[in-house]
Structure formats: structure tokens, C-alpha cells
Design brief:
Blueprint lengths: L10 H7 L9 E4 L5 E4 L17 H9 L38 H6 L10 E8 L5 E2 L7 E4 L3 H11 L4 E6 L19 H12 L4 E6 L12 E2 L5 E2 H18 L3 E4 L6 H11 L6 E8 L6 H7 L20 H12 L3 E5 L5 H10 L4 E5 L1 H12 L5 H15 L3 E4 L2 H8 L4
Parallel strand pairs: 3-5, 3-6, 3-14, 6-7, 7-10, 10-11, 11-12, 12-13, 13-14
Antiparallel strand pairs: 1-2, 4-5, 8-9
Bound molecules: ligand PBG.
The site of ligand PBG has 12 residues, from helix 8.
Length: 418
Amino acid sequence: MAATYMPFNVGTIKGLDYRSYGNLKPNVLPMHHTKRMFVVKASSNSDGHMKKLGRSDAECEAAVVAGNVPEAPPVPPIPSSPAGTPVIPSFDINRRPRRNRRSQVFRSAFQETSLSPANFVYPLFIHEGEEDTPIGAMPGCYRLGWRHGLLEEVAKARDVGVNSIVLFPKVPDALKTPTGDEAYNDSGLVPRTIRLLKDKYPDLVIYTDVALDPYSSDGHDGIVREDGVIMNDETVYQLCKQAVSQARAGADVVSPSDMMDGRVGSIRSALDAEGFQHVSIMSYTAKYASSFYGPFREALDSNPRFGDKKTYQMNPANYREALVELRADESEGADILLVKPGLPYLDVIRLLRDNSPLPVAAYQVSGEYSMIKAGGVLKMIDEEKVMLESLMCLRRAGADIILTYFALQAARVLCGEK
Ligand code: PBG
């Protein structure tokens, strides 16, 4: 089983560091479960110093007592500095933090944060088509055919330890309405896909998105009144039906991303009333009205037809307000708290981490992904290293899990498969 093959944190050594340190060679060992991992090899001494003379322990001890101490190699000379190096007295400081960074062994021993494929949730775009359609603004991402491409992508992800996905549907325009009723059609694209996935991979963990925007003819997350107001309670009514429909199909975690007030509590009650006590809620607790969602909206053709999402998504200037959302979500029964976007909002991730015992998720959104991809394609940055560093930093800030379009690519690196 792919999900359990990484018994300890080897990923960070391989993925982030080994290339940068010339003295550390990845050593590929065959493991008992077909997977491989790199280990740091202690330096071996293969020269002539260990020649044995066939003496007993007692003879060796007697020789030393008699003063016949065997030769060991001399202490190496102090390495010379380049000509012109200033000759100065050493600083009289007792704290030199560089001591704990001086070799890969020390650095690995003292590494505070780890990154593993088990931390990733892989967002996947699906559509009704048979082919996989590339998404222009997200190089490497596709709208996957729900019956073919999707299953292959999930198999690849499971192969490298990513066993959690979140589904985003591209819904045909003809099915979009002002009230987004396709969102709770039990035969709709998402419920149908969940049933197919669960049939093929019963232990796959499936997260779903709960919001009306892919189904709304207005491209908003909620129902839009004549005067442009997004109707809160009426939208939540629809979201409850959507969440129950997803749970009925087999979803493990429903994730309201709509930012309506009171939706977590209402969805919890709706799920429980239908016997889905075991289905979790990952709430988009602090979801900001961000321009980093641009490529995603292109992928799903879900741009708001008018206006913006600022009356429900949070103002990017606000920090304390995330605590208001946190308290609501906690008291309404959320199982996981999500911050979105990720990297520009590390302070908010830390805020939630320090103010709640619940697991925290970070969403590295489409714009963050596309910027790293673009910088890599243009050779302005090292795509792979920046990818791994950005994910590690989300973990350091306090995220337990990360929703990232890099999930498969990063997991492959962490497993030494690339
Ligand atoms: C919509 C939703 C959005 C994303 C996830 N769910 C877009 C939005 O709020 O407009 C964005 C994800 C991304 O940019 O990667 N409910």
C-alpha cells in the first residue's frame, strides 16, 4: 500500500537538501515494499588503518599499558585560508548558531519541520469529456475526463503516497442556473465521479468542494438577488443539499469554500440528520478575496459574471477577523480549518495554529502554482527547489495538510522517483 511506505521523515533530506551538499550522496536501497528511499551513509574507512595482527584483547590491553600505543592518523592540519584573508582575533562569543548547521547530519538531526506525501491533498479538475484538456493558465494541470484521465492521475498519486484528493468540476453551461441546483443532483458529475473512485479505490480519501460557483449562471458562490446581494441563508440551504448529496455518494470530507455565515453548523446538522456522522467538514475558515484564484476560475470557467466576491470572502488586509471566523467554525463543529491562499497568508496560518487545537489546512492556490511554474519555465528560478521550499514553509507556518497542485510532482521528488 502506497500510503504507508514512509515510516519516518526521509523526504526532507532527499527532496530539499541532498543536491545542495556535495558530500552527501543519495544511496538507493531496495526496500521490502518495492519503494525506495535515500539514506545518509556514514563515511566508511576503507584504507589500511584497520589491519589486524591476530592479538587477543588482553594482549592489546597489555601493549597499551606497557606504553606501546598503536598509531592513529595525525590530526589534520588547519585548512589554509586564501591569501589576503584578514588575520583577526576570534570573536569572544559563546553562542555560534552555525555549529548546529555544520554538516548534513546535524542539519537533519535538528530539522524542526517535515514534509511528506501524507501531508498533501491533490486538487483535481474534472469534466464530462473523454479527453484530458490542458489548462492554459496552469501548466501541467488538466481538466481530466472523469472516467479515464482522472483514474490514471489518482493511481499515479497513490503510487507515491498521495491518497487524498479534492474534486473540482467543470460543469456544462447548459446546466448552470441562478440557484445552482445541479450542485445536488445525485447523478451529477461530482457524485458520479465519487462513486466511480470509491468503487475502484475504496481507501482513497475524497474531499469535495461545497459552493455554488461551478453551478451558478452568475459565477458566484451563492444565490444572487436582483440587486446583486448574495443571499446568505438561502444559499446555505442549497449547500446543505449539496453536501448531503456528496456524502451520499461516498465523500469523506466536505469542504465549504463559499464563506456564507453559519454554513458549517447547518451542514453538520444536515449531514447528521441523514446519518453521515462520520463525514468530516473542512471549513474554508479564512478565505480571502484574492486575485491569486485567477487561473482556477479560468480552469472552471467560473469567473463571476459581474462584480467580485468581496461581500463574502475576506479582505486581504485583515488579520484579526480570521479569529471571528475561527470561533464560528470551531463552535459549529468544523473538523479542519483552512486558510486560503497559502504563501501570502502565512501569518494567518500561524494565527489559526496558535489559537485552535484543530488541524489546519493551507491551500496553495492556482496563482501561487502558476507563478512558480512560470518562473521555472523562464529559468528565473529553480522550479523544483522553490516548489519544495514553498510547501515546507506552509508546514512551518503551522499547516498540517496542504492542498496543492504540486502534490504529485512534489511527492515524486520526496520519494526519490524524479
Ligand atoms: C470556489 C473556489 C475557488 C477556489 C477553490 N474553490 C475560487 C473562488 O473562490 O473564486 C480557488 C482555488 C485556486 O485558485 O486554486 N468556491
